[in-house]
C-alpha cells in the first residue's frame, strides 16, 4: 500500500496501517513535513517530494495489486497517477453532496451558510473526474451545535477522517469494499469564494466561521482573508 499526503492525519493513518499488519510500500510527503519524525520512527519507506505527480509515478507503475491512499494531500492527482496501477482512494473533509474543494474553505462555507451538519467522505479516485467526485465507500456526519466555531468543526472533522480510515482500511486492502455514486455539488470551494461567503453570512455566522483558534497557524491565507473583512459602518 502507498500513501500520499501530509501532517498528523497522514502519520496517524500510516501508524494504524502498520498496527493492523498491512504492508506499506512507500509514503510520499512534502520535504520537511511535520509527519516525517513519526514516519521515521515507524521505519516505513519515505519519499519526500513537492511534486508527487512526477516523483511518485515511477513507484506506482504496474502495481495493480496495490492501493494508493491520499490523506491531507494538497495536490490534485493527475490522470497519469490515477491510471498508473494501484486503486486510488481519498478522504475528503466534507460531505461531497454539498461541499467539494479545499477542506478549510468547505468548513468555512458550511458555517457561513448556517449548516446544521457536516462530515467527511471516503471515496475512490478515478481518471477524468471532477475533484472530490468519485464513487463513495463511506461517509461520516455529525451535527453542528449553534455555538460551533471553525476550530471546533475542524477538530471534529479530522477525528472523523481518522475514524473512517480505521473502519475501512482493512477491507480496502483486501479489495472487499462496496462503492456507490451520489449527486455531488456542482461547485468546488476555493479561496475565490471567501468574499461571496462573507457577504452572505452576516456578523454572527462570520464570527463563528472566522474563529480559527489553534488552526490559525495552519491556514495563514484564510486567516489573512478573514482578518480583512469588516461589517457595519
TrEMBL record:
One Pfam annotation, family name? Formyl_trans_N
Superkingdom assignment: Bacteria
Report the residue ranges that make up the Formyl transferase N-terminal domain in this protein. Answer: 75-162
Supply the PANTHER family for this chain: METHIONYL-TRNA FORMYLTRANSFERASE, METHIONYL-TRNA FORMYLTRANSFERASE, MITOCHONDRIAL
Organism, as annotated: Methylorubrum zatmanii
Q: Which classification does the entry list for the species? A: Bacteria, Pseudomonadati, Pseudomonadota, Alphaproteobacteria, Hyphomicrobiales
Q: What is this protein called?
A: Formyltransferase family protein
Q: Which InterPro entries match?
A: Formyl_transf_N, Formyl_transf_N_sf
